[in-house]
């Protein structure tokens, strides 16, 4: 079994490399009208440049997974701001895409908690579609829209899970088919557990991203091992390696919060479970210390007898 590792958005240790610099709508509105688009373009250009620096870090360290910041483009989906963030940066987006393709990096996005398809309010669904279209448009501009994924959660329960899940499937029909093909669903730490998320994925033909920390905070009645083969099987139609999210609790009291680093003792039971299925995995590290936490976990795992480090960011078990 091989595991490839990746991290989220920012590479700590690179000076001033945030790909998520932003401009609030309040600040945008206060600017003279002739300066507004210039400021949006300036910040977007910075974010793209910093993303390029981070991709070069990944290339140098042989890291094959990377989650782009959803905040790459400030005010991209704000209802009162409409601007073209693709055409002016066509060359820049292509450069990022070329790096991804040349070095076989698996790209992804993870929109925020308000991108959901469970709300009874129509405008929430409309905004969710708009946000998914925004993320897809960037993947498309980079030329990686057939390999990049956009991962979301099912959403809230609104007091009735059965009714809400029915609405989720209905609302999801408003999402364009080409975007749905790149969509994944993830179990969460409070509402929809592994079993509920898996059933939704199987019904929609959507790959499921297992979040192990979320599972431990929101456990199913049956053991995870009984669901794992089915979770991995949801990836068969996409011809992609199953992807999992890994973090560990900050403390017993703040169990759902992510710790700075990933506890080896916390994650080993899952790795042993996956090894029994002999399934290759792509593992996205969601610890607060991002790439630093990822590299520490790789080194901790590589120190275990029988584990072989194949490259900077890949281990064989």
The portion of residues assigned to helices is 40-55%
Strand element count:
10
Low-confidence stretches: none
Radius of gyration: 20 Å
Total helical elements = 11
Strands, helices and their partners?
Layout: E1 2-8, H1 25-30, H2 33-60, E2 65-67, H3 90-102, E3 106-109, H4 122-142, E4 149-153, H5 161-171, H6 177-180, E5 183-186, H7 194-204, E6 208-211, H8 212-217, H9 228-233, E7 243-246, H10 264-276, E8 281-285, H11 290-302, E9 308-311, E10 314-316
Helix pairs in contact: 2-3, 3-4
Describe the structure.
The protein has 317 residues and is an alpha/beta fold. The chain is 42% helix and 14% strand. The chain is built from eleven helices and ten strands. An eight-stranded parallel β-barrel has the order 1-2-3-4-5-6-7-8. Strand 9 and strand 10 form a beta hairpin. It is globular. The termini are close together.
